[in-house]
Amino acid sequence: FVDWAWAEVAAGEGRHDDARTHLEAMVEHALAAEFEELVCLAYRLLSQQAARRGQHRDALLHLQRMYQREWTLRAEAIASRETIVGWQVELRESYEARRRLQAAARRLERISMEDHLTGLPNRRLAEQVLAELLAQAPGEPRVALAFIDIDDFKLVNDRFSHRAGDEVLRSLSALLKHGVRQGDVVARLAGDEFVLVLPDTDAATAGEVVHRIEAMVEAHDWGALAPGRELRISASVAQARTGDSVEALLHRGDTSMYWRKLGRARSRDA
Predict the structure, then answer these.
(1) Which secondary structure element, helix H or strand E, spans residue 97, and what is its range?
(2) Which of 155, 168, 176, 239 minimizes the number of CB atoms within 10 Å of its CB?
(3) How far apart are CA 96 and CA 263, in angstroms?
(4) What's the whole-model pTM score?
(5) According to DSSP H, which parts of 115-228 are helical?
(6) Roughly what angle, to the nearest 10 degrees, separates helices 95-112 and 81-93?
(7) Where are the beta strands (DSSP E) in 11-75?
C-alpha cells in the first residue's frame, strides 16, 4: 500500500509516468507477498490511469490481467469447468465483485493513514490535514499545533516491558482523544511523540487544551498498567504564521519541544 499511496501522490501532481512506475512496483510487491487482492487492485488502478491518458489498449490489457488473476483464484476452488465459466461471467458483471474491490481500496486507504498500535491517525494524515488547513487560509492561518511526548518513556519499556509500554501509549492516546475538542485531530508521529492539529485556534487557546490534557494525564491511574509508575508528559505549542509550510511549522514545533525538554533536564540536574 506504500507504492499505492505514492502513486496517488504522483497522479495528483500530474506525474503520470511516476504514478505508473509506483503501480507496477505495487504489482511486484503484492505478487512477492502473495497478496492477490492487492495485485488485482493494482491492475485496476493501472487500467484506470491508462484510460484517463487515452491509452485504451493498455487499459484493456491491465483489465484483462485483473480478470485473469481473479478467474484463476476462483478456479482453484472450483472443480467443474461449467461452474468456472458461469463464475467468470458473474465476476465481470456482478456488483459484488466491484464491491469487494472497492472495499479493499477503502481498507488500504485507511491502513495507510492509521497508526497500527493506537488506531490514531499517523504522521501522513496529520501532514495532509495540516496542508489543507494552511491552504485554506494562506494570508493569516489560525492553526496551532501542540506537540506532546512522554518523559523518560524508555524507562517504562526497560522496567516494565515493551508490552506495558504499548499499553501506556494506547491509554495516553485515549486521553488525548478525550481531551481535545470536536474538529481537532490527534495523531501519533512516532514512538512516544504525538501531535494535536488544532484548527481555528490561537496559541493561547492551544495552551488551554494542553493544560487540560496535562491535568488528565496527571490524574490518570498509571499504576494499573505499570505498578508504582507515574507518567508525565512534555508539551509545546506552535502557532502557524503567514507563509508557513507544513515542514516549517512541524520543524518549529519540534524545536520548541527540544528546548522545553532540555530546560527541564537542566532544571532536574540542578
Answers:
(1) helix 95-112
(2) 155
(3) 59
(4) 0.57
(5) 123-136, 153-160, 162-179, 203-219
(6) 60
(7) none
Q: By C-alpha distance, which of 113, 122, 188 is closest to 149?
A: 188
Strand partners for 144: 198, 239
- The set of cell numbers assigned to 46 is 493501472
Q: Give the per-residue pLDDT at 101.
A: 67
Nearest CA among 261, 124, 103, 99 for reference residue 187: 124
- Please count the residues of the chain: 270
**Please, are residues 237 and 256 in contact by the beta-carbon 8 Å criterion?**
yes
| Separation of alpha carbons 139 and 150, rounded Å | 34
- Contact between 249 and 135 (Cβ < 8 Å): no
pLDDT digits (tens, 9 = 90+) for 130-187: 999 988 876 777 899 999 999 888 888 888 888 888 999 999 999 999 989 899 999 9
Q: How many CB atoms lie within 10 A of CB 16?
A: 16
CB 130 within 8 A of CB 197: yes
Residues 189-223 as b or e (16 or more Cβ within 10 Å = b):
beebbbbbbbbebeeeebbebbeebbebbeebebe
179 to each of 2, 57, 173, 182, how far by Cα in Å?
Answer: 31, 54, 10, 10
